[in-house]
Amino acid sequence: MLSIAKVRTLCLLVGIAVASALFALPALSQDQAAAARTAAGCGPSEVQFDVKTDKKQHPVAQPEAGKALVYVIEAEKADRGVFKIGAVTTRAGLDGSWVGANHGASYFYFSVEPGEHRLCTDWQSSFKSISRLGSAVSFTAEAGKVYYFRVEVHETSNHPLAVKLEPLDSAAAQFLISSSSLSISHPKPPASD
Q1: How many domains, the chain?
Q2: Is the residue at 92 inside a domain?
Q3: What is the 3-state secondary structure (H, E, C) of 144-161?
Q4: pTM (predicted TM-score)
Q5: Are strands 106-112 and 181-187 parallel, antiparallel or unpaired?
Q6: What domain range is 25 assigned to?
């Protein structure tokens, strides 16, 4: 037979184990969500970008030898009834690492190795509900080819806030590039405690 002291100790240990498991569930859930976003192509959620745009430049690059070139073009859809403060910043990730960001009607491009890739984009925001808005696509890059993707940010009264990533054909992409600003981005330094 167990003594009262042993029963109390056993209950205390069981209580600690249950409490530890309950506190670990949110962290486990967050780790699973982060792993899923990385598998979709996104980079770490804590990385934020500073973005500058240049309306005067509209460079069009060619792929490096043995590589493909990827353009990411942001377009915002908002109606006049939607209150806006500035443009939206979207980050773009490739295979689990951020490669750059756009701000408003802008674009940037980068080189990729041939093969299977996952491209992700999301709305950079300090608000969790908005920062979860994003989209991803898979594509197979071939050396010497150029791939164009449009990030469509929806801020309309008849459509919920959304970020949609889709491939574009070269004519539609060239048209968007002609009226978009060149985006120059770099990761912000980590916040110091």
Answers
A1: 2
A2: yes
A3: CCEEEEEEEEEECCCCCC
A4: 0.78
A5: parallel
A6: 1-39
Output DSSP code: residue 160.
Answer: -
Tens digit of pLDDT for each residue in 142-152? 999 999 999 99
Are both 132 and 161 inside the same structural domain? Answer: yes
Q: What are phi and psi of 151, to 5 degrees?
A: -100, 110
Q: Is residue 193 part of a domain?
A: no
CATH code, domain carrying 61: 2.60.40.2890
CA pair distance 51, 128, nearest whole angstrom: 20
pLDDT of res. 32: 74
Q: Could you read off the pLDDT of 1-32 as tens digits, one per residue?
A: 555 655 455 444 444 544 444 454 454 445 77
Rounded to 5 degrees, what are φ and ψ at 148?
Answer: -120, 135
For residue 96, what is the DSSP state?
Answer: T
Confirm whether 192 is domain-assigned: no
Residue 102's φ and ψ, nearest 5 degrees, are: -115, 160
The answer on 55 and 11 residing in a single domain is no
